[in-house]
Amino acid sequence: MQKPRPLFIMLVLFLWMVLSGTESRAEDYAIAPVQMQAALFMKLLSFHEDISGGGDISIHIVGAPDFAAEMQAIIGEKIGNAKLAAVSESQELPSQKPSVIYAGDVSKLDAILRYTRENSVLSITGIPKLVLKGVSLGIGVAGGKPKILLNISSSKQEGVNWNHAILKVSTTF
Q1: Residue 24: inside a domain, yes or no?
Q2: Within its chain, how far is the Cα of 35 from the centroid?
Q3: Exposed e or buried b for every residue in 154-164, given b needs 16+ CB within 10 A?
Q4: d(C-alpha 62, C-alpha 68), whole Å
Q5: Which of 29, 81, 104, 105 could staple 128 via S-S, CB 3.0–4.6 A?
Q6: C-beta atoms surrounding 57 within 10 Å
Q7: What's the rounded Cα separation, in Å, for the pair 159 and 156?
Q8: In angstroms, rounded to a whole number, what is the distance separating the alpha carbons of residues 89 and 63?
């Protein structure tokens, strides 16, 4: 009997790892509670070098009143050298450019992404599957633990300048 070649074994192992689904997909994550989302997004925004550098941060939330209430309760908190100064919520896009837009309404996703890319605004969400559809930063839950989801190509389209440390704590798409 002929002995298997090392290259063949490595190829089989590689294909097994790729095809077995070792990488998680955004659809595999549950929606995190809004309290968890608010706390984590406040920490994660400090990885956005343009936002955390200083000044006032504003967040507009589309279609997620519960998340808006959580964020409004922490207005004034620090994000790096900046602070959360304003949180607005509606079913529509903002009338004034915010620092961040939270996508909470799937039906408005195309309009939100068009706005964030045209205006260099960071998009975030608590709906994990929206990260695969183009939102830059999301939070989900897997195995009872929060997971940070980062869409790198969407971040580039929005002009986001991430601190590279975010790559160590996130799952990238």
Answers
A1: no
A2: 16
A3: bbebbebebee
A4: 9
A5: 29
A6: 24
A7: 5
A8: 7
Is 122 a member of any domain?
yes
pLDDT of residue 19: 39
Is 64 domain-assigned?
A: yes
46: domain range? 34-172
Give one DSSP letter per residue of 22-85, joined into a string. -S--GGGPEEPPHHHHHHHHHHHGGGBHHHHTSEEEEEEEES-HHHHHHHHTTTT-EETTEEEE
Q: How many domains does the chain have?
A: 1
pLDDT, one tens digit per residue, over 92-125 is: 999 999 999 999 999 999 999 999 999 999 999 9
Lowest mean pLDDT among 3-12, 67-76, 152-161: 3-12
pTM of the full structure: 0.86
Give the domain CATH number at 48.
3.40.50.2300
3 occurs within a structural domain: no
